[in-house]
Amino acid sequence: MEALSEKFMLRAIELARFGTGRTNPNPLVGAVIVKNGEIIGEGWHHAWGELHAEREALKNCYQNGKNPEGATIYVTLEPCCHFGKQPPCTHALVEAKIARVVVGSRDPNPLVHGKGNSYLREHGILVEEDFLRSECDALNPIFLYYIQKKLPYVALKFAMTLDGKIACKTGESKWISNEKSREYVHALRNCYSGILAGINTVLKDDPMLNCRLCNDSGELTGRNPVRIILDSNLKIPLESKIVKSAREIKTIAACCDSCPDFQSKRAALEKAGVEILCTKSFMDEKTHKAQVDVLELMKILGEKQIDSVLVEGGGEVHYSMLNSGLVNKIYAFVAPKIFGGNAKSPVGGEGVNLVDEAFKFHLEKSTRFDDDILLEYVI
To answer: Would you give the end-to-end CA distance of the chain in angstroms?
Structure first.
C-alpha cells in the first residue's frame, strides 16, 4: 500500500514540473485523484492566475466521466483555503466529497499555513501530511524562500575553466562551456522570474539575455525572464539589443540616486520601454564609485512579485551579491580547459582575508554535459 501511495505522489510531482517557468510567483503543484487503486483524474497548476492543481485534477476527473466521491487525492502542496486569483481548493475538495487528502509540502504562506488542512479535517476529510515531503519541498525552493523572506531567491550562474577562469587574458570568453551546457542555461532562464547582469557585461557582449529554450521541432517554448541591468550611471546604450527589445521583453535598469544626467537618459530609456528603478547608492571601497544598493534592489523586486533572479553578471556583480548575503544557489559550469595567466575569475571584489571568512556552500548536485560538469551548490 505504501509503495502504491508513493507511486501516486511521485506522479503528482512529475505533473507539477510541467508548470515550470509559468507559475511564478505561485508554486509548482501537481495532484492525482485515486479511487479503488486507479487514477481517475490528474492535473497541475499550469500558469499564474489559472486553475490550481486540485481543481485541474477534478476537472480532468469529470472529463473522464468519473465520480471523485470517496476518492483520495495526492497533492504536492497543502491545498489553499483563501480567495486569490482562484477560489479556495479546499472548498472544491469538500464539494466533490473527496474522502482523503495526502499532502506533501506544508504551505508557509500565512494565509494558508495549516489552515487548509484544518479546514478539510473540520469537514470530515481525512488528511495525511508530510508524505514524501522532502521530494515535494524540492519542487519549490524558490516559492518556499520567497513567501517567507519576501525577497527573490538568488542564483549565480557562471562557466569557468579548470583553473577557475571566466575569460582569457584578452577578455575573450566565447565559448568556455560546450553547446549542451549552453542549452541547459536556457532551461534555467525559463525557471527564474528575472535575469540580472551588470552594465559591463552589456557594454562588452551586447547580450539579449532572453530564453531560447526550444522543443524537438525547434519551436521556442520558454518564457523570457525580466531582464535587470545593474547600471549605476545609466550607461546602457540606446542602440543595445536589450534596449531595442525592451517593448517585447520586460526590462529594468537599476541606477543610483546620485546618477548624473539622470532625467534626460531616463526619459530616453523609458520612451524605449525600459523601466527605471533608482536605489540609494553606496561607495564601492575598491573603485570609489557609487554603486546600486543590491539589497534594496532585491526588496523592490520582491515587492514587484519577482520571486527569483538568475545572476549572470561579471565577477564584481557576483561578489556584490555574495557580500550582501543574497545568494541562495550557485550553478558552476566547469569546462575541461585551462587558460592560465592573470585572467578574470567568477568572483571579483575585495575578497576575504581569511579562509574562515569564505562564503560557504553545500554541493547539492552534479551533472555531466559531455565533458563539461555542472556543479550546483546551495547555502
So the answer is: 36
CA-nearest of 185, 176, 179 to 208 is 185
Residues 6+ apart with CB under 8 A from 282: 290, 291, 293
Q: pLDDT digit string (tens) for 250-281? A: 999 999 887 777 788 999 999 999 999 999 87
Q: Where are the alpha helices (DSSP H) in the chain?
A: 2-16, 53-63, 89-95, 115-122, 133-137, 141-149, 179-191, 199-205, 241-244, 262-271, 294-303, 315-323
Query: Does residue 6 have an active-site annotation?
Result: no
pLDDT at residue number 350: 87
Say which range, 57-66, 210-219, 363-372, has the weakest mean pLDDT.
Answer: 210-219
Instruction: Please check the confidence at residue 286 and state whether its pLDDT lies above 70.
Output: no
Report helix, strand and coil shares of the chain as percent, to nearest 5.
30, 25, 45
Helix (H) or strand (E) holding 50: none
Task: Reduce the DSSP state of residue 370 to 3 states and report it.
Answer: coil
Of 42, 54, 56, 316, the active-site residue reads: 54
Question: Could you give the 3-state DSSP secondary structure of residue 160?
Answer: strand
Q: Is the pLDDT of residue 282 over 90?
A: no
One DSSP character per residue, 195-239 reads EEEEHHHHHHH--------B-TTS-B---PPEEEEE-TT----TT
Report pLDDT digits (tens) over 193-206. 999 999 999 999 89
In 10 A of CB 1, how many CB atoms?
6
